[in-house]
Amino acid sequence: MKLINEGKRIEAKSFEIITGLLKKRGTLLSGLKKPVITRVIHTTTDLGYARDLVFSAGAISTGLKAIRQGKNIVVDSTMVMAGINKSITACFKNKIICRIHDKDVIKKSGELNLTRAIMAMRKSQRENEGGIVAIGNAPTALFELCDLIKEAKSKPALVVGIPVGFVGAAESKRALRGLKIPYITNKSKKGGSTVAAAIVNALLILANKP
Length: 210
Prior knowledge:
Elements: H1 7-24, H2 33-44, H3 49-52, E1 53-55, H4 59-68, E2 73-75, H5 78-83, H6 86-92, E3 96-97, H7 103-112, H8 116-123, E4 132-135, H9 139-150, E5 158-161, H10 169-177, E6 183-186, H11 193-207
Parallel strand pairs: 2-3, 2-4, 4-5, 5-6
Antiparallel strand pairs: 1-6
């Protein structure tokens, strides 16, 4: 097999392979969901995401609007932050915010015996207004965000809720799907910071298209 050394050509070939493999399974992707789902599969090599990911009505268009308006992107972990395409966020002046390592978050977490993920969501509840929240690590962060939204203390435009794990992950996503807000999530315990970043990057790339 002849190796492809150019990044864009490698990505294009990968997307072509993914489309072919999904077609063999009888899965045909279309519309704005296609580049989002394909990028997640490209990141994970897990074709199961084609059926696992769930999009609320208008979720993608809402996310694109928030990006183009320069709204904040709040994340639950530095791994999500590290994976987001900074060249595009710079174009739209989107600020990426992660409070998980803030000193006051660590202090209050210890005092209240709550996870840092919970305290970080509380601290950023105003910063996410009209923006995007991307959660890929902690189910407790997503549970807390859902509570803040229900209490009208937090008003993000879009929630990307993809925490991973055996404890609380699927349940937190179920709680998100019960809210009347735009969301992108999945049904299973699968997920992770790389998946959350992949979804945000897919939205950024779409938003940056002429």
